[in-house]
Design brief:
Blueprint (H helix, E strand, L loop, with lengths): L1 H21 L6 H21 L5 H23 L6 H20 L3
């Protein structure tokens, strides 16, 4: 259950990061509201997952999902540059997340 909560926490991190970009420095109401709600949900789920998962594992997985997800959203929807070097860096992050999951007792 903790792993599912952690995955959803990471997905909500992507939501709030994307909404923050759309808020234009918190000058637009609805994206700003979505940012704050997304943060609360993301942190809440992360906190819940940390009840049973180790700190380092939970935090690394949470930030990794958010980082890679925001990277993909940036490329797909915000016209951020696509290069083999950036894609390789994202794949390295994903590899680290998989290794961390495999190295953590259930």
């Amino acid at each position: 259950m903790a792993w599912i909560l952690l995955i959803f926490a990471g997905l909500f991190e992507i939501v709030w990061a994307t909404a923050m970009k759309q808020s234009h420095g918190f000058s637009r109401l609805w994206p700003s509201i979505i940012t704050v709600i997304g943060m609360i949900v993301s942190f809440g789920l992360l906190t819940w997952a940390m009840r049973t998962l180790p700190l380092g594992t939970a935090y690394m997985i949470w930030t990794g999902i958010g980082a890679v997800g925001a990277f993909v959203i940036g490329m797909l929807f915000f016209g951020e540059s696509v290069s083999m070097m950036r894609i390789a860096a994202a794949l390295l992050i994903v590899s680290g997340l998989v290794l961390m999951k495999l190295a953590t007792p259930s």
